[in-house]
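Bug #77: duplicate submission created two jobs. Keeping one. Sequence:
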Amino acid sequence: MTKSVAWGILGTGSIARIFARGLAESGTGGLVAVGSRSRENADSFASELRAPRAYGSYEELLEDPGVQVVYVATPHAQHAEWAIKAAEVGKHVLVEKPIALNHAEAMAVVEAASRHDVFLMEAFMYRCHPQTARLAQLVRDGAIGEVRLIQASFGFDARPHPAHRLFDNSLGGGGIMDVGCYPVSMARLLAGAAQGRPFADPVEVRGTAHVGELGVDEQAAAVLKFPGGIVAEAAAAVLVGLENAVRV
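Kept job's structure:
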């Protein structure tokens, strides 16, 4: 069967590799090219994951007319730049989370996609999983009664190293950017489902974090209040192993 969607991957890190392996199992899309900051890394990735074409720069991949959709799997600080550049050359874009480092960057990405009429999505893979859809449906149907409190966490104990992206502020390091977006996203989904809506925005947020010697948040927690009296507790960490679960 000919796969109808031709994918290009920007970046050759561990997340890019996981995505490429999943793409190999897809019935509708296939990997046609990979771009890296070095030709050596691109060639190694292409050989390992059977990408037909390898490029030693991100620009070269974007110039490939055979690439329809680009998965931006660069470090966080580069997400907005390359998502915008992909949109500007007419490529549809899947951006690894977080879509950008701040609101202004995120809006610039959205505006670029709208201006060039391309599809844009932030890669929260759990939102596409049938289990998540089922959970939201159960909450929407009132299967557990009235929703009062949501608890969600995502944290792991990494080895701190100043050269690693997780502990480099210039690369968008820290737990909030890397994994804190998951419990907050889940809380918004479920608070919305409880009110029959796709998602909800908090009306009040309180949070705190510990910033370590390398200048990034090592562990953080927040309390979010949603319309309807729903309260959510969210926690994230890169130096603490958390439960990595959600309770409603």
